[in-house]
Amino acid sequence: MSFRGFLERQKSGGRLVAIDKTISKKLEASGLLKELDGKPVLLDRIKESKFRVAGNVFSSKELVADYFGIKPAELIPKMIDAIEHPSKPNVVEKAACQEVEMGEVDLDKLPILFHCEKDGGNYISSGVVVVKDAEHGQNLDFHRMMQIGKNKLSVRIVAERHFDKFIRKNRKMPIAVCVGNGANVLLAAATSVALGQDELEIANTLEPLDVVRAKTFDAYIPADCEFVLEGTIDLEEKVNEGPFVDLTETYDKVRQEPVFTVWKVTHRKDAIWQALLPGALEHKLLMGMPREPTIFREVSNVVKCLDVSINPGGCSWLHAIVKIDKKNEDDGRKALEAAFKGHGSLKHCFVVDKDINIYNPLSVEWAMATRFQGDKDIVVIGKQKGSSLDPSSEPDTHQTYKMGFDLTKPLVAKGKNFEKAEFPNVDIKNYLGV
Ligand SMILES: Cc1cc2nc3c(=O)[nH]c(=O)nc-3n(C[C@H](O)[C@H](O)[C@H](O)COP(=O)(O)O)c2cc1C
After folding, report:
1. Helices in 134-218 by DSSP H: which ranges?
2. What is the 143 CA–ligand 1 centroid distance (Å)?
3. Which CATH number fits domain 290-406: 3.40.1670.10, 3.20.20.80, 2.30.110.10, 3.30.70.1520?
4. CATH 2.30.110.10 fits 3-278, yes or no
5. What is d(CA 123, CA 144) in angstroms, rounded to the nearest whole number?
């Protein structure tokens, strides 16, 4: 389903917040979206642009599950299946994303938001970058981009990402930046799979996808997206990128990053720009969700894993909560050791029993308070390279101290019972008449 198709579905289900007041793309739209975090929002009138803006569109697991027509609990198996069984998208000749071609490229005409006071500029944060290497084929990634001119942006490329490998090898490359995608493309772009695996094939298994050839180079792009920016990225031309808010909601530093020069912009008639608030729930969800299947798979190799949540409280990157069906006393410890193999940036991991709600921080903290002892239930992984996003890791090496917490109860209680007491079920309507 297209981005706009999903917005329509939210509208007809009464879940879309539509705002028709005129909103500025500078320091206003972002404030509104933040205030309404977790709810899909459509901004009908943008002061500086003729295009509408939609944000927070996939800002909860319920919304992503609704996109696929499944329950949130079915998302991890669905993603595992897509990663294990990629399939070729359908190639079309004519595509909605190429319906209209902007004359002379002028990025000021697009509603590229200026999010927070100290930002270095207007930022594209929802753009999926499509790039093609002669040897490895196509790759899809997210890369934030700061507008530095009418047709130029500086692109944040984390070292060792596949795009980073491609650009260091090719120095100058054509790319397409696709904005306004469905959850199949967004989730696929956020996965980290083997070099050479075209993530559009993962997107296609998640949900069948049409692709079209880009206008200016030989690569395939999602046919149904809202906007496409095509141009060249050049490693020899570097400028400052930042400051910008990252996943942890803190400011990232300014770095020298390569410039993307845009030669062509195409879009749908009446196109809708996708805003993606940095550090907010949608950003967190898209970062964290693709790591849940990788942790789930590793933990399942050693114990019975029931569910994994890379929770927003841990920036949806640094913490994970793993639910297991404990059968042996050392299952918690084994699960923790495996979880760290499933996600290299994991810093703290918590393993809980099947009676704990891993989506409720109160429930997890209750398990920690009542089932955990610091002298025997901590698994120390120790100092290792962690996430560059963690403000507390060592600034240059990103060394960080990793630990796991076994919050499962012993199989046989020696002292007090570990079960939560059950209260009688009543139907409140019979008492309050509501
Ligand atoms: C919303 C979002 C924004 C992201 N922004 C960036 C970015 O600015 N730079 C970057 O290098 N990676 C960014 N990432 C991470 C990469 O897209 C992601 O890790 C990618 O899956 C790595 O893929 P690869 O294995 O093909 O290198 C972002 C991810 C998401 C979900």
Report:
1. 162-170, 183-190, 199-206
2. 6
3. 3.40.1670.10
4. yes
5. 7
Beta pairing partners, 53: 43, 273
> Which listed residue (119, 246, 252, 353) is catalytic?
246
Q: Assess whether 246 carries a catalytic annotation.
A: yes
Q: Report which protein residue has its CA nearest ligand 1's atom 22.
A: 192
Give the predicted TM-score (pTM) of the model: 0.96
Span(s) in the chain for CATH 2.30.110.10: 3-278
Determine the Cα–Cα distance for residues 192 and 188; give it in Å rounded to an integer.
8
Question: Mind listing the pLDDT tens digit for each residue in 272-326?
Answer: 999 999 999 999 999 999 999 999 999 999 999 999 999 999 999 999 999 999 9
Rounded to the nearest whole angstrom, what is the distance from the C-alpha of residue 337 to the centroid of ligand 1? Answer: 25
Q: Is the CB of 190 under 6 A from ligand 1?
A: yes
